[in-house]
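Case study 2.
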Amino acid sequence: MPTYKVLGCTNGISECASIIKSGGVVVFPTDTIYGIGCDPRNDSAVQRIFKIKGRDEKKPLPVLAYSMQDAEKIVSLGRAGRMLAERYWPGALTIVAPLVDKKISRSVTAGSNSLAVRVPANRCILSLLQQCKYLVGTSANISGGKSSKSAQEVLDSGLDGFDALLDGGHVGGVESTIVDMTGAEPKILREGAIKSGEVLRRIAEV
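Prediction:
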């Protein structure tokens, strides 16, 4: 028998927020795919996510923030990063930037001094983030498996060991584009919902 709760986005937000604040792990919809997350400052909760997904601990995890202002409290976006955030957030662009919040678990960053951060464009997860501010936001699937576009796909995937699932219906299904802004030159790490050429053109305008 499953040990998790399945909750709706209209009535399950507060319960999921208290699960996260007490060190729990929640699956939730975003504008791109379903994600699995926890408090990024709670190392034991972060370790659970690696275990649930069977994910290599040398791979860093992205973090979702409620707003650009909240994102800037944990990373230094810089001028070009801020311009990208103003253009694409809330939305499907993940920005890797220098970490400034030393309370973020070292497991999240895999020991590096940078962090991947994004503000998602989905009302359900934003309602949860309004109460939690930050969430680890990695894909809700066994590592290497297919991303889930609905709560049912998560349930069918064999993923287990989390505490609650927020059912927000069907979502977009295309992962975010990831741009690394930590080096001398911006680098596209993954092309997703936003074309990499468009992102690089925007940066060149700064």
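Residues 43-53 form the longest helix (11 residues).
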